Amino acid sequence: MSNLPRLHWTTLGEPTLGMEHRWASHWDYTLDSNKADPALPPKDAELWAISAGAVEPPPALVRVSGEVGAMPILLLRKPDAGPLSPESLLAWSELGSARWGEISEQPPLPGMRPSLQIEPPMTGGQALGVGFVIVSEAMKNVLAKAKAAAATKATVLLTGESGTGKEVVSKAIHRMSAEADGPFVAVHCGAIPENLIESELFGYAKGAFTDARKDTPGKFREAHEGTIFLDEVATMPMAAQVRLLRVLQEREVQPLGGGGAVKVDVRVIVATNQDLWKKVQEGSFREDLFYRLDVVPISLPPLRERREEIPALAQNFLIRKAREYNLYPKVLHPSVDARLCAQPWPGNVRQLENAIERSIVLAGSKPVLTREDFEFLMERVPEEEREAVASRERDGIDSSLPPPPIFVEPLPTNIGERFELPPDGLDLNQAVSEFEKNAILQALSVTRGNKKRAAELVGLKRTTFLEKMKRLEIQDDDPAPDAE
Q: What is the overall mean pLDDT for the chain?
């Protein structure tokens, strides 16, 4: 029995040019030349090759393709075949996610089929490690698609409103991929002047234009064996779209000003906050390029549709910004959750991050951020929406806050001035113990159980804080070390 991977080649009656014999040392192959009734590939096939010389696939093949699941498809054309029309590309794309290739002496590479092993979903810590704060089902779906895309070099199209985290997702795909050690090159197409974008992306030869004093590789060659992220791709001018299409088709770049084409091995991720298909219909974006980009589409939901993630995102930004500015560690009072979750957030995650950053900077040495530190958010809410926002906040305060702590009233800050000795005296040790227990419970409530920050709030070292908890018989529901 052969140990070679299995390739099933549906020729649809077209010639194989004898390549099945040249590939015999790499593949255990089966041939099917039936055009009217093509056979399903064997279940153990690693790759399904299909001769795609016709204008469109026969209907029988389209029906069969729906039964092969995740099997990779390679569409083969003869080296001298002319270019396909956009209509033909669209017709062949009905077979599913497929690659294009030439019938040549170079055999297709094995090992393309996805693993059939069901991988467990990422834990919260693993997701955070690649830049995700995952709480909502919508973002769990985004992460699952990003993880699947990272296992291949398929082109990814990220869509969503500004500020939803498209660049974060692109970096996560890169970090989860086999090319994580390679370069990640981000290009914001909208920030580059129209007359410079081609030279910026594809490079240029010395003397190509007035200021071209030396050969410059361009962003695609800088991203070789890594990932290139093209943000705001909808703003790309038509001339650059033609060159981008060639890169996606041929996997090579042609520098401006002459010189030979240069092969590039790069994953392409593009992003836009516009409706690309609408731009195709308006004639401002190439239809054939759209189909090349829309291989793995991932849509990011706006923050207002995943409000359950806001507290976790806010806490993550709080920790990160405090470290970034080397500021005193701060915590969010639980009442802040309702205020943040009630906001419309037109700027999405980016606006939330900026709000947390502003509050941290203006709070100075204040250790706990309260609802009052986020009053400025209402200033940017349109007048007609403010009552709805206030109503959501009131509902959130009633439903989202944890049960009140054991203590009855807040601890006074001017203890010496307010204290009066009872006529019958008191047990000083017991009074001190009750005060300490009350203070520790309040600190734990405000910091949501984070003992390290609770200790900082009451001016103790963490070890001393834990000793007092033990002595005062305060239950430790989470003996694990606090996350930073």
A: 80
Output the six-digit token pair for 323. Answer: 């470290």
Domain span at residue 368?
Answer: 304-400
- Picking from 22, 41, 43, 44, the residue whose alpha carbon sits closest to that of residue 31 is 41
Cα–Cα distance, 128 to 472 (Å, whole number): 36
Q: d(Cα 356, Cα 13) in Å, to the nearest integer? A: 64
Task: Classify the C-alpha dihedral 19-21-25-30 as positive or negative.
Answer: positive
Residue 269 shares a structural domain with residue 358: no
Instruction: Name the band, by pLDDT with cuts 50, 70 and 90, for residue 134.
Output: low
The reported pLDDT for the residue numbered 411 is: 45
Task: Please indicate, yes or no, if residue 458 is contained in any of the structural domains.
Answer: no
Q: Are 271 and 130 in a shared domain?
A: yes
Domain count, the chain: 3
Indicate if 358 and 390 belong to the same structural domain: yes
Q: What is the pLDDT of residues 40-74, one digit of tens each?
A: 888 778 888 888 888 888 888 877 776 665 577 88
Q: Which ranges of 15-58 would DSSP assign to H, the alpha helix? A: 19-22
Q: Output the pLDDT for position 119.
A: 47
Segment 153-173 mean pLDDT: 92
Q: For the CA atoms of the chain, what is the radius of gyration?
A: 30
Identify the CA nearest to 149 among candidates 265, 292, 296.
Answer: 296
Q: Report the relative pairing of strands 252-253 and 262-263 from DSSP bridges.
A: antiparallel
Q: Does residue 117 form part of some domain?
A: no
Distance of alpha carbon 195 from alpha carbon 456, whole angstroms: 56
**Which residues fall within 8 angstroms of residue 388, CB to CB, at 6 or more apart?**
none
Answer yes or no: do 275 and 232 share one domain: yes
Same domain, 46 and 63: yes
Q: Look at residues 349, 301, 298 and name the one whose alpha carbon lies nearest to residue 150.
A: 298
Amino acid symbol at 2? S
Quickly state the pLDDT bin for 153 (edges 50, 70, 90).
confident
CATH number of the domain to which 53 belongs: 3.40.50
